């Protein structure tokens, strides 16, 4: 009886451990698994890495010593040896030793840590300042050096890749799933870049692990950070918003493209244009190679990433749609053109709240389907999109989208998502209302 129970238990245990094992290793095989931090590409990130390793090894040594002594004592003085325990209860000498040694260890760790902290906080003598603003759910970048470049950076992974919960109809996700944007922050290597970080709604945080920077973006408050990417480490670096900021917190990645300072000057002189992949548009043929190369060296240890599947032409068309067109806003578009463009803009800028089918989220984000504004007087519709609704999550898109984009998304909302008002607007109508 006892025996059979026991064997059942051990059977269960072995099943459990086998499945745990399988779980662990299937996870390892799937994920691009790596240990430790990303490879540091700035001096501060290298310092942080060094500090991390130093403290790690101090911990390892303490661990081995403490457990070594413990296990040795347990084993040496075990009951079967009839060891007679000593009965002393106080030892000033031991107490002094176990106070002084940890104290010395802590001071020994605090000195280099403080040096790095002081270095991290020193934002003086910067070559370039960028203002970074967190929004629900995108990042705004503004160059403060008089170049007058500013833009918003939005997730470019298509919602069709994100919203697939059915394993059977699942399509492949892209290589940089949820870590890709329509426009990257462009910075030069070998230059001290200072960032002023704030937010427009709730608290976000700007985080690029390879740079060793992470700072909260707080509404009404400006935080500072700086980084100086080593020359020779040009490439694409990716990070995330690191402060839970609501429903789409996971969908506001950060992409930074580091270019040489010559390329940066060229980009600024060209007015800060972007190519279809959201990187600096330079008329320098070597640029694409550079991007491809460094992406590999950041991520690739050994294995070649799978050739990009005829990659989301949808994502690219979205990006094209989102980059405001430089054309004059008096161009007339057909209703079909407006609807096609509007659908793309809606699927990038508006779905997070109003949902792909226009139903919104009851009690939080209103439906567009049957909405009094989206089916009523068009002036009110234009107004809420241009100016937003202060005090709510509905942002003023007049600052973020071009006249044509706004005309398209309004036309789309009025004639799709279950609405069929039948009217349309042109960019010129929007310009007139600004
Ligand atoms: C971050 C969430 C969010 C995003 C993104 C968003 N909206 Fe809204 N939207 C809201 C909220 C909240 C309201 C309700 C505001 C209020 O209280 O009147 C709203 C209201 C509206 C309304 C009025 C609906 C009604 O009947 O009251 C329209 C039209 C609208 N949004 C269009 C858009 C368009 C177009 C976009 C994309 C360019 C967009 N919204 C993106 C949150 C959002
Ligand atoms: Cu955020």
Q: Topology, pairings included?
A:
Elements: H1 2-30, H2 43-76, H3 92-121, E1 128-135, E2 138-143, E3 150-153, H4 159-162, E4 185-188, E5 193-199, E6 204-208, E7 213-217, E8 223-227, E9 235-241, E10 254-259, H5 261-269, H6 286-299, H7 313-322, H8 335-354, H9 372-375, H10 378-387, H11 403-415, H12 427-433
Parallel strand pairs: 1-5, 4-10
Antiparallel strand pairs: 1-2, 2-3, 5-8, 6-7, 6-9, 9-10
Helix pairs in contact: 2-3, 7-8, 8-11, 11-12
The site of heme C (HEC) has 23 residues, from helix 8, helix 9, helix 10 and helix 11.
Kindly describe this structure.
The protein is α+β, with helices and mostly antiparallel strands and 434 residues long. It has three domains: 43-121, Orthogonal Bundle (Helix Hairpins); 128-161 and 175-299 and 312-322, Immunoglobulin-like (Sandwich); 335-433, Cytochrome c-like domain (Cytochrome Bc1 Complex, Chain D, domain 2, Orthogonal Bundle), CATH 1.10.760. The chain is built from twelve helices and ten strands. It has a five-stranded mixed sheet, with no helix packed on it. The chain has a five-stranded mixed sheet with strand order 4-10-9-6-7. Helix 8 crosses helix 11 (403-415). The longest helix is centred in the N-terminal third of the chain and has 34 residues, at 43-76. The termini are far apart. The site of copper (II) ion (CU) has 7 residues, from loops.
């Amino acid at each position: 009886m006892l025996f059979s129970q026991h064997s059942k238990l051990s059977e269960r245990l072995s099943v459990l451990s086998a499945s745990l094992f399988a779980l662990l290793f299937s996870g390892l095989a799937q994920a691009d698994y790596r240990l430790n931090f990303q490879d540091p590409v700035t001096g501060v990130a290298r310092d942080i890495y060094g500090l991390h390793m130093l403290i790690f090894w101090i911990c390892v040594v303490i661990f081995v010593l403490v457990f070594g002594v413990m296990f040795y004592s347990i084993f040496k003085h075990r009951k079967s040896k009839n060891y007679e325990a000593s009965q002393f209860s106080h030892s000033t000498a031991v107490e002094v030793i176990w106070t002084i040694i940890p104290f010395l260890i802590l001071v020994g760790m605090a000195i280099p840590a403080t040096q790095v902290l002081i270095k991290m906080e020193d934002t003086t003598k910067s070559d370039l300042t960028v203002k970074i603003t967190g929004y629900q759910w995108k990042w705004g970048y503004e160059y403060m050096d008089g170049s007058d470049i500013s833009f918003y950076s939005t997730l470019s992974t298509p919602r069709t890749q994100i919203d697939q919960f059915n394993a059977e109809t699942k399509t492949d996700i892209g290589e940089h799933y949820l870590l890709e944007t329509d426009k990257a922050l462009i910075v030069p290597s070998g230059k001290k870049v200072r960032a002023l970080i704030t937010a427009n709604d709730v608290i976000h945080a700007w985080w690029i692990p390879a740079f060793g920077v992470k700072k909260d973006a707080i509404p009404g408050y400006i935080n500072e950070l700086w980084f100086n990417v080593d020359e020779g480490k040009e490439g694409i670096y990716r990070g995330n918003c690191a402060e839970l900021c609501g429903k789409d917190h996971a969908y506001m990645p950060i992409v930074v493209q580091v270019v040489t300072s010559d390329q940066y000057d060229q980009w600024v002189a060209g007015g800060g244009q972007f190519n279809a992949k959201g990187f600096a548009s330079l008329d320098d043929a070597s640029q694409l190679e550079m991007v491809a190369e460094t992406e590999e060296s950041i991520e690739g240890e050994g294995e070649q990433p799978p050739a990009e599947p005829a990659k989301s032409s949808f994502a690219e068309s979205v990006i094209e749609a989102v980059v405001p067109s430089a054309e004059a806003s008096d161009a007339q578009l057909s209703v079909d053109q407006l609807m096609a463009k509007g659908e793309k803009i809606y699927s990038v800028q508006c779905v997070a709240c109003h949902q792909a089918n226009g139903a919104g989220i009851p009690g939080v984000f209103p439906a567009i389907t049957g909405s009094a504004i989206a089916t009523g007087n068009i002036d009110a519709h234009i107004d809420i999109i241009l100016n937003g609704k202060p005090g709510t999550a509905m942002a003023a898109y007049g600052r973020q989208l071009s006249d044509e984009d706004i005309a398209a998304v309004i036309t789309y909302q009025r004639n799709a998502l279950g609405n069929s008002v039948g009217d349309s607007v042109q960019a010129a109508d929007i310009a007139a209302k600004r």
